[in-house]
Known about the structure:
Layout: E1 13-16, H1 29-37, E2 40-43, H2 46-55, E3 62-64, H3 70-82, E4 87-90, H4 103-112, E5 115-118, H5 124-131, E6 139-144, H6 149-159, E7 165-170, H7 175-186, E8 190-195, E9 203-208, H8 209-213, E10 223-227, H9 243-252, H10 257-268, H11 272-280
Parallel strand pairs: 1-4, 1-5, 2-3, 2-4, 6-7
Antiparallel strand pairs: 7-10, 8-9, 8-10
Amino acid sequence: MIRQKSFENNMPTLYLVPTPIGNLSEFSERAIQVLKDVDYIAAEDTRNTIKLLNHFEIHTPMISHHEHNTNVAIPKIINMLKDGHNVALVSDAGYPAISDPGAELVKAVIDEGYNVVPISGCNAALDALVVSGITPQPFVFYGFLAHDDKTKKKELEANKNITMTTIYYEAPHRIKKTLSLMLQIFGDRNIALCRELTKKHEEIIRGHISEILDIVNELKGEMVVVVEGGSKIEDEVVFEQSITEHVNEYIAQGMSTKDAIKEVAKIRKVGKNEVYAEYHKK
């Protein structure tokens, strides 16, 4: 067990500082002061962060910490803490360690016995959740799905029976495929698609997946998709007939073998290949 009394010890500290996801006026006074007070800022992309620091006249030295240099950056930051320095971790937008680099660093700092302190601030997932009109709790934050369609489909299949509201992040060039797969796998559920949160062109689109698919080609900007929970898993239906007998029943009614296999697969909620293999096995 580790008990961290953040403000009752003199241990060096890693601060997790969320940065605005769009509107700079949402950057809190405490977050700005922490960035001014620490010895170093570890940034996901120093080129982006320097714009933020310049805007708020923050002159703290920066180092790079992103998903491709953790093997170098994490030991470097640990050594800074060992030398008595305080470090702030920031991502390009929103909370570090939430679909952004940081989780590995947090674990490493905890293992070394130093403080890890959160600063309240911007979070696109929670912003979207509370304005979605969908039951806000309990909820599951899933983040980004896989980029390739095959893996994405497997992830959604695994999620279809989650009864809690689920939050996903998605990029505009992948949103149409993602919503199409959700419609195919989840059914036509209620969702809220929130884009450009806190920015000038912020938009909250609430409705069924099929409705939003009709306009998705005109949408731009980073997106959060809030999906209502699925129904509880239905009790498994027990069929008295074997798969072969079931297929033969439809063939006897005039269906082709192909259509009979497709119908049986639909009724039994199994793959067509599974029915085909069972029907044609020797």
